[in-house]
């Protein structure tokens, strides 16, 4: 009896599949899409044109500005406006260039704006986060009624609070100080509390209850659990608060009288009022405005996506 020990080799016939890509069909012209693109481009141009005109005026010669008012390009291109803003021109050179001849203490005003905006942002975000946590998670009597009453503050125009705040700041002896400018909006605002409360309501209660069962106190849960989980909305609120406090003008104008507390927005108004005989120093004014707005533009461009995503997540329009 013989046994066949010849190994059997399985042969697999190579299979090749040739896939032919389907030819792309040319997109048909969509009038609605074309109209939408045209409208979007128009909106972008209208939005960016003021910034371009500000840059064009800042780079123009002040003396030739009126003669070339119809030109879209800088008239007799010059950096004299920026030199006057940064104090690189003497008084006589500034007068010859069409300026007022009075120096603007730009770096002092910039420092004041940074200090005031930082104080307001840090204080408002911190205290608003604590208030929002109390409204979102702590159980106490009449919580919802108090929150509704607190939220009603959104309907009070800011101008109604100027006089009471000024009397309070004056009685505290904080007029013409940086703390006097920052104090009224340094603690919390209804918008900031509402913004953070919406996010805190969405955090899982099981995670918080697990931390409490492990022996953590409410304060520890807030600082070690809630705040780290809320970095995105807190960052968004901080950016929005910083931009708003940087652009604040009327309250700072009421409280500050000298250079030691004058912020950039007020300083620009003072710079404009130093009008020479030939007319306002538009070149210097636009250069100062551009430099003052530049930090906020950079900040928004860096965090624009985070701001839009967080606002959409919180359901705030």
UniProtKB/TrEMBL annotation:
Subcellular location field: Cell membrane
Q: Does the keyword Plastid apply?
A: no
Principal location listed in the UniProt entry:
membrane
How does this chain sit within the bilayer?
A: Multi-pass membrane protein
What InterPro entries would the database entry show?
Answer: MetI-like (IPR000515), MetI-like_sf (IPR035906)
> Which Gene Ontology terms describe the biological processes this protein takes part in?
transmembrane transport
Name of one Pfam family that matches:
BPD_transp_1
Q: Which CDD domains match?
A: TM_PBP2 (cd06261)
Ranges for domain ABC transmembrane type-1:
110-303
Question: How is this protein annotated for GO cellular component?
Answer: plasma membrane
Could you list the residue ranges that cross the membrane?
A: 34-55, 114-135, 147-169, 181-200, 221-244, 282-304
Q: Which UniProt keywords apply?
A: Cell membrane, Membrane, Sugar transport, Transmembrane, Transmembrane helix, Transport
Q: Write the signal peptide boundaries.
A: none
Q: Which SUPFAM superfamilies match?
A: MetI-like
Which family does the UniProt entry place this protein in? Belongs to the binding-protein-dependent transport system permease family.
Q: What is this protein called?
A: Multiple sugar transport system permease protein
Q: Which organism is it from?
A: Kribbella voronezhensis
């Amino acid at each position: 009896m013989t046994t066949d020990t010849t190994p059997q080799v399985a042969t697999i016939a190579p299979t090749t599949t040739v896939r032919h890509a389907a030819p792309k069909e040319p997109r048909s012209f969509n009038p609605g899409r074309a109209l939408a693109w045209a409208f979007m481009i128009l909106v972008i141009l209208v939005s960016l044109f003021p910034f371009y005109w500000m840059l064009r005026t800042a780079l123009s010669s002040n003396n030739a500005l009126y003669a070339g008012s119809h030109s879209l390009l800088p008239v007799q291109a010059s950096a004299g406006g920026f030199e006057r803003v940064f104090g690189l021109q003497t008084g006589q050179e500034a007068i010859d260039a069409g300026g007022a001849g009075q120096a603007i203490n730009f770096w002092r005003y910039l420092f004041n704006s940074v200090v005031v905006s930082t104080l307001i942002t840090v204080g408002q975000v911190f205290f608003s986060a604590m208030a929002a946590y109390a409204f979102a998670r702590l159980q106490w009597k009449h919580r919802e009624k108090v929150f509704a009453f607190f939220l009603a503050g959104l309907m009070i125009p800011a101008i109604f609070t100027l006089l009471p705040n000024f009397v309070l700041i004056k009685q505290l002896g904080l007029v013409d100080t940086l703390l006097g400018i920052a104090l009224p909006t340094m603690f919390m605002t209804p918008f900031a509390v509402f913004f953070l409360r919406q996010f805190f309501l969405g955090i899982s209660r099981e995670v918080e209850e697990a931390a409490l069962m492990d022996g953590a106190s409410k304060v520890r849960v807030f600082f070690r659990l809630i705040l780290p989980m809320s970095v995105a909305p807190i960052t968004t609120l901080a950016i929005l608060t910083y931009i708003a406090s940087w652009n604040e003008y009327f309250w700072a104008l009421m409280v500050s009288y000298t250079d030691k507390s004058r912020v950039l927005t007020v300083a620009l108004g003072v710079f404009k009022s130093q009008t020479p005989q030939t007319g306002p120093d538009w070149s210097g004014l636009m250069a100062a405005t551009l430099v003052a707005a530049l930090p906020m533009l950079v900040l928004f461009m860096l965090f624009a996506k985070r701001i839009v995503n967080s606002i959409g997540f919180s359901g705030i329009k």
